[in-house]
Amino acid sequence: MLSRRGFVTIPFVDAHIHLWELGRIRYPWLTPPFAEDGPNGSVEAIARDYTLADYRADMARWNVVGAVHIDAGADPAQALDETEWLEGVADAGGLPSAIVAFARLDDPDVEALLAQQAAHPRVRGIRHIVNWHADPLRSYTPRDVTQDAQWGAGFALLAKYGLSFDLQCYPAQMAGLAPLIARHPDVPVIINHLGMPVISDPDGIAQWRAGLETLAALPHVAIKLSGLGFIDRDWTLDSVRPFLLAAIDLFGTDRCLFASDSPTDTLFASIERTMAAFHAIAADFSDDEQRDLFARNANRLYRLGLDL
């Protein structure tokens, strides 16, 4: 849906963005030295302030009517500082519409932090990145915390505070997570970045599909269509199309959310190319389905209250 000037008119609730001011809050992953051998390669290109003004400028062509800020990897000791800063940004600039904050679910004292996070008006959920892989260069964590009883206890507390959970894991962890998620239907779960298939693993694609099938069987689980560069740093529309369509097929157009992952995904492609890919994929769906994928699902799942 294009205007005469190329402005995309369909409403977009961006389900996954990051903002940061590096002089205000410490982000260990955005702090030198940088190396190519991490899970994302070098992040030096985005290790600079990224403000709401920068985001609005990058998204000027797209009809952004809402955005959800996801925990941006701040120093855990500054988790509340990040939330408080974002509340101020939103008060002054109208975005983000909602916040998914950080808490370490395996911390025995996590409940105090959950209560403090949930007290902020825009906080809707929690993210604790749990990507573990046998290859230490792919792993975000030294061990798979999702199988710890303490982590499960932290997850169970989310419902008490009305919080959803943004799940960033690898496919090999999904079957192990499914029983815990199934036991807590009152904790909505939103899978990040298409479930992050590891296509270099011998059975990586099959493992990804099997993992998503297991989680898609749970009606309170949804998935973000984002993070294309995590599949393939040199992705093309043709290379990612099967993954996007498979996710939509498994979860349906009512449980999938397009998201820019700005600015992280600019490590791999421009926002223009990412958004153009999403619109190309969505073109074969009905107008109603497109509105769900681009805005209404995020509005519902993150309880934004927008009139869409």
UniProtKB/TrEMBL annotation:
Residues 13-304 form the Amidohydrolase-related domain. SUPFAM superfamilies: Metallo-dependent hydrolases. Pfam families: Amidohydro_2 (PF04909). It comes from the Bacteria. InterPro entries: Amidohydro-rel, Metal_Hydrolase, Metallo-dep_Lactonases. Belongs to the metallo-dependent hydrolases superfamily. This is Amidohydrolase-related domain-containing protein. It comes from Sphingomonas glacialis.
